[in-house]
Design brief:
The structure is a single chain. It is built from two helices and 31 strands. It has about 425 residues and is mainly beta. It starts with 5 loop residues before the first helix and ends in a 17-residue tail after the last strand.
Length: about 425
């Protein structure tokens, strides 16, 4: 945690009217030179002069990959004035002839009302990726704060404990889950609970023969066989639950087989109907037929998935609905594919009770062809006006993946995972 100097801390708490950043750029032999000091305007603080050359402080960029257990180096891109007579009678870039700043350190300080922090708020290395024009110089400042981070306890996949581990996973970290994880939709039933999952936690393959994966090194409260996923492009496919063994006490996941279910979000052709495809159950769209039984139809597009496997069936499901208008007849809600070329396919009807207000997934199976699904609502007797509140339309594609199951990871989403961290140490699974 950042600790500011006593004087600066007092100023910030009481009467500071101005705060600014001060940057020191080192060159040649870092410890044997007086750094080039710059800020956004000319300043003299703490007996040091800072030239007002900074035109933009940019922003900090850093990313973390949960699946690959990696993070990028944080970078800050700043822009300095490089016009004539800006420093020592010339351009800032003229300094490079005698002052090598590439791969040298930088330190950033915070100042308030003339007080300077005795501790830096940022430090690192100046990248050698320096861009200069006759107007500006752009520097990439690489963050070095990771050197001061506290390392979490870790357990890696070793060959002695896991002799059948895939080569790419040797010495990789075994995930550690902290806190509670909740399924997004636990009460909806059918397939909505695994289709509308907003977060997934990684597990790492430790046995390429039996296809075993570890989500943690310690026992978990719950693992669900219905929510074991494999990443396919930008989407995730769930393994058929009958082909999954998930043991929370171990914990270990064993999975396999050619039967997977890919869930992809559709795109509404009419933005007024986005609530039906936004993967959020907090909003609905009233789907209402016209007066006198007139039909209402709306188109929804299935995005391109890519060549990830062989598809054998498609199910269009209503993840949550409520029938508002009760009539003596069932509402005729149906769906069909409209291929880009060829004849329009016939509608396939959904089936339910007219007074059905439960939250179960109502679904219709459609042929796997085309890329536009048209959904229609109409009174089957062409008399009454029918209205339904539809919270979410879900597309489920049954598929056999192209790749074999020696992937590095699978993913799962579980409800109320609680860590039992009383037992430490490695287990042979």
């Amino acid at each position: 945690m950042l600790t500011l100097g006593t004087a600066l801390n007092a100023v910030l708490r009481s009467k500071a009217t101005e705060a600014c950043w001060l940057l020191e750029l080192y060159y040649n032999d870092d410890d044997a030179v007086t750094p080039v000091r710059v800020s956004d305007v000319d300043r003299t603080i703490g007996g040091n002069d800072y030239l007002g050359l900074v035109r933009s402080w940019g922003s900090l960029h850093q990313s973390a990959d949960l699946v690959e257990f990696t993070s990028s180096t944080g970078t800050v891109s700043i822009t300095l004035d490089n016009t004539e007579n800006t420093i020592l009678g010339g351009r800032f870039s003229d300094l490079f002839a005698i002052k090598n700043i590439a791969n040298r350190k930088w330190i950033l300080y915070l100042s308030a009302d003339g007080e300077v922090s005795t501790d830096s708020i940022g430090s690192g290395i100046i990248s050698d990726d320096i861009k200069a024009t006759d107007k500006n110089v752009q520097l990439q400042l690489l963050n070095n704060e990771s050197n001061f981070d506290t390392e979490f306890p870790k357990t890696v996949v070793d060959v002695e404990t896991y002799p059948n581990v895939p080569d790419n996973n040797i010495d990789k970290l075994i995930p550690m889950a902290y806190g509670d994880f909740d399924r997004t939709i636990s009460e909806e039933g059918a397939n909505a609970d695994r289709a509308l999952v907003k977060g997934r936690f990684p597990a790492i393959i430790v046995d390429k023969t039996d296809i075993d994966a570890l989500p943690d090194i310690q026992p978990l409260n719950t693992l669900r066989t219905r929510q074991i996923y494999m990443k396919m492009g930008e989407y995730y496919a769930a393994c058929k639950s009958a082909n999954v063994i998930a043991t929370a006490a171990t914990p270990i996941i064993t999975f396999g087989g050619p039967d997977w279910y890919l869930y992809i979000p559709m795109v509404a052709g009419d933005i007024d109907y986005d609530a039906m495809t936004d993967r959020d159950y907090s909003e609905f769209k009233a789907f209402q037929s016209g007066a006198g039984g007139a039909e209402l139809t709306k188109d929804f597009e299935i995005p391109l998935v890519g060549n990830v496997g062989t598809f054998s069936a498609l199910v269009l499901g209503i993840g949550k609905k409520r029938i508002v208008t009760n009539t003596a007849t069932d509402p005729n809600l149906s769906a069909r594919f409209d291929p880009l070329a060829g004849a329009v396919k016939p509608y396939v009807e959904f089936a339910w009770d007219a007074n059905d207000e439960d939250l179960a997934l109502t679904q219709a199976t459609l042929p796997v062809q085309g890329d536009i699904i048209t959904v229609s609502i109409q009174d089957e007797n062409l008399v009454d006006q029918i209205m339904m509140e539809i919270y979410e339309l879900i597309v489920e594609l049954t598929m056999a993946p192209l790749q074999t199951f020696t992937r590095k990871k699978t993913l799962y989403s579980v409800e109320y995972i609680r860590q039992a961290r009383t037992a430490r140490g490695r287990r042979r699974l």
